[in-house]
Amino acid sequence: MLSFFERRKRLHLGPFVGPSSTDLGELARMRVVEEKAYTRKMQDLWKELKNSAEKDEKVDYWDFISGSDFAQTIARAQLVSFLVSYGYANLLRKGNSIFLVPKAKPDPHPEGSPLSFPIPITKEALVRAK
């Protein structure tokens, strides 16, 4: 079998453009999400994260994103990714554990890499959530 790029050349699709990121405003313009409703959900989750982290100043990522079912877990994970991207929280790795550390105020210029940090939601993680 030919490589992906060789097969793509045969379709005459033009130059290959790598994946890029999008922000909440662009998703709203595309009518994928409603910006105000999504922002409200994100802020509600931020408040929940701050309340959950009061005692230890951090929360286990898996415990926090776990919902009552798979769809809710995915939705919470997506909202958390925006919280981290927009500077409302930090993601902290210690060994095999992942923690969320909420910020008192959102950082307008979050530190860190603009690259994504994929966290696969495996069947094991879903079993842990139940």
Task: Explain what you see.
With 130 residues, this protein is mainly alpha-helical. A three-stranded antiparallel β-sheet has the order 1-3-2. It has a single domain, classed as Arc Repressor Mutant, subunit A (Orthogonal Bundle). Helix 3 crosses helix 5. It contains six helices and three strands; from the N terminus they run αααβααββα.
* CATH fourth-tier homologous superfamily: Structural maintenance of chromosome 1. Chain E
**Which regions contain 5 or more consecutive residues with pLDDT less than 50?**
none
> Could you say which overall geometry the principal axes of the C-alpha atoms support?
globular
Outline the biggest β-sheet: 3 strands, antiparallel
- Just name the CATH architecture: Orthogonal Bundle
Mean pLDDT: 80
Number of beta strands: 3
Q: Helix count?
A: 6
- Give, in spatial order, the strands making up the sheet with the most strands: 1-3-2
Give the class-level CATH name. Answer: Mainly Alpha
Overall structural domain count: 1
Query: What is the N-to-C succession of helices and strands?
Result: HHHEHHEEH
Report the C-alpha radius of gyration, rounded: 18 Å
Terminus-to-terminus distance: 43 Å
**Secondary-structure content class:** mainly alpha
CATH T-level fold name: Arc Repressor Mutant, subunit A
Helix content: 40-55%
The share of residues in extended strands comes to 5-15%
